[in-house]
Amino acid sequence: MYFDFANVLVFLLLGLGLSGMMLGLGRLLRPSNPLAPKLDTYECGEPPTGSAWINFNIRFYLVALIFVIFDVEIAFMYPVVAVFRDWLLSGRGLYALAELLLFIGVLAIGLVYVWVKRDLEWVKQLPAEQPTDLSRAA
Amino acid sequence: MKQLVLQLTGEGGALAGVPYHLVAALAMLVFGAIVVFVFVLPVAGVTSWLERRVWARIQSRVGPNRVGPQGFLQWLADGIKNMLKEDIIPTAADRVLFSIAPYLVVIGFVATFAVIPFSSTLVIADLNIGVLYITAVTGLVVVGVLMAGWASNNKWSLLGGIRSAAQIVSYEIPAGLSIFPIVLLTGTLSMQGIIQAQGWAPWHWFLFHSPFTFAAFFIFFVAALAEGNRTPFDLPEAESELVAGFCTEYSGMRYLLFFLAEWGNLYVIGAVVTTLFLGGWQIPHVTDNPVLLAVLQFGVFFLKSYFWVFIAMWVRATLPRVRVDQLMSLCWKYMVPIALVNLVGTAIWMTVVPARVDRLVQIAMTLAGVAVLVRFFLRVRFQLRRAKLRAVDYYYSPII
Fold first, then answer.
1. How confident is the model at residue B136 (pLDDT cuts 50, 70, 90)?
2. Which of A22, A60, A67 sits opposite B257 (nearest CB)?
3. Using a CB-CB distance cutoff of 8 angstroms, which residues of chain A are in contact with residue B82?
4. Taking CB atoms and an 8 Å cutoff, what residues of chain A touch B176?
5. pLDDT digits (tens, 9 = 90+) for B317-363
6. Residues 6+ apart with CB under 8 A from B349
7. Which of A15, A34, B59, B217 lies at a 20 to 30 A Cα distance from B285?
């Protein structure tokens, strides 16, 4: 088994070597003639306005958060589904099934919650704010 | 391969006396390099040429047909041309991240080939966690794409990069969940183990095992297309709105490396789909000759997986791009719940349904699959007749 894992490591190195070789070979062949206008940021030919390292839409963070929850779920379930068959064959299938259902049930509730809170909508509609009565507040 | 190394270093072997680890490391490097240069690079390159030809035919154009017979060597010409192009790194960009982003994408793509089982013997490393490993290393592509988008310091790149990251991570969930029904059925994560649990005949494939695995197959394929940034999910590189998305600022070889990985990943998608659902390299017993057997199995595996590459090209030439909100709601509101139902359904199916019913269902599912195919071809014939093609269209050669 260590032999196989060493092989995988070799493949990661080969991926590195392949791209390194292609770029290195290109370095010997390609011209290098940097000019200020050439190295400018592309913005459809206009002079670029400001940096692009800005705050971006909060939706992407929410997607990332939901992803993390479900990806951890997947990571936890790999061992369970891998041994499920053995448990079934040894007559403990219903226990395994109950545990699997419980785990997925908890997650499904999470998905339903996110759905009901409308966080799966890309354009989230917030409830319209009630106009406050300023005369009474004062 | 381990046997080969042991044979070489053992008593009376050609390399007796040379340290075992040295020979093993060299053998791994040599075999890996052979796989990468003889198989991976040509497959990715030829796919790029074939895809352009297939689109061209679908869109009544000719496509690249000048370099070599039928333009077959176009991919080599493109590679050489890109190698001779200047490598431009914008002054505003983060030089280090900008330079290493293509490396990560290519590593994430090449590393998957270590576990793809081309035949019962032709596999570099039959890991006991093969499926998990594939989902893990393809995750490197997200990091590379996000890095490219952020490091370019360009608004198009930034939008393309974060869109791509959101899309890939979202679709990883249904893809991951659709692997589980198969793992439940086989009880192993090894790619070879999953293939050995199937047979050569379609009714032994996991595609037709139960309604749940049938649904899981489609969810997996669509999610894999979305993970590979393919149309109809190619929002990260949407030309009409984002110029070239995360690779707007890239040029020459670095640009090519992103697309090498994209086209190569198409084959990886096909190979994984074939392994999980379509019986992999399984063929009926025809020969005992190990070499001939390996060749036949390799041929069957390659054709099956390349068929899905062709389907992906077809889809790309046919469907328009989806909007970003449609993309997200398709994933989270349809595919994730259906994938969860598939998982639970398969687990209950295994506990409840007896083996004899299982067999009947497999045959019924296969017949249903055949019926769908027949219906499809009848529909195509109907459309062709309705189009009232003139004789000249019929005799229009597919090869120009």
1. confident
2. A22
3. 26
4. 71, 74
5. 888 888 888 888 888 889 999 999 999 998 888 888 887 888 888 88
6. B210, B212
7. B217
Across the interface, do B172 and A67 touch by the CB < 8 Å criterion? yes
Inter-chain residue contact A51 with B92, CB threshold 8 Å: yes
At B214, phi and psi to the nearest 5?
-60, -45
- Structure-model confidence comparison of residues B277 and B232, the more confident one: B277
A64-69 average pLDDT score: 85
Cα–Cα distance between B296 and B24 in angstroms, integer? Answer: 28
The identity of residue A33, as a single letter, is: N
Positive or negative: CA dihedral B167, B127, B267, B75 = positive
Report the gap between the CA of B205 and the closest CA in chain A (Å): 18
Q: What is the mean pLDDT of residues B69-92?
A: 86
A67/B173 Cβ within 8 A: yes
Q: Contact A1/B128, CB-based, under 8 Å?
A: yes
Supply the pLDDT for residue B262: 86
Q: What is the pLDDT of residue B88?
A: 84
Measured CA to CA, the distance from residue A24 to residue B137 in angstroms comes to 24
Label residue A50 left, alpha or beta by phi (over 0 means left) and psi (-120 to 50 means alpha). Answer: left
Q: Which residue of chain B comes nearest to A28, CA vs CA? A: B84
Cα(A88)–Cα(B390) distance, rounded to whole angstroms?
A: 61
Asked if B248 and A94 come within 8 Å (Cβ–Cβ), the reply is: no
A3 interaction partners in chain B (CB closer than 8 Å): 1-2, 24, 125
Distance in Å, alpha carbon of B56 to nearest chain A alpha carbon: 28
Per-residue pLDDT, averaged over A9-23, amounts to 85
Do B329 and A122 make contact, defined as CB atoms within 8 angstroms? yes
Contact residues for B369 (Cβ-Cβ < 8 A; gap 6+) = B202, B207, B208, B214
At B334-345, the pLDDT tens digits run 999 999 999 999
Confidence of residue A131 (pLDDT cuts 50, 70, 90): low
Closest CA to B122 of B310, B345, B291: B291
Work out the minimum CA distance from B183 to partner chain A, whole angstroms: 6
> Comparing B225 with B16, which gets the higher pLDDT?
B225
ipTM: 0.82
B interface test, pick of A10, A32, A65, A109 with most B CB neighbours within 10 Å: A10
What does pLDDT average to over chain B? 84
Give the residue from chain B lying closest to A107, CA to CA. Answer: B340
**Are A35 and B140 spatial neighbours (Cβ–Cβ below 8 Å)?**
no
B92-109 residues labelled b (16+ CB within 10 A) or e (exposed): bbbeebbeebbbbbbbbb
Question: Quick one: pLDDT band at residue A52, thresholds 50, 70, 90?
Answer: confident
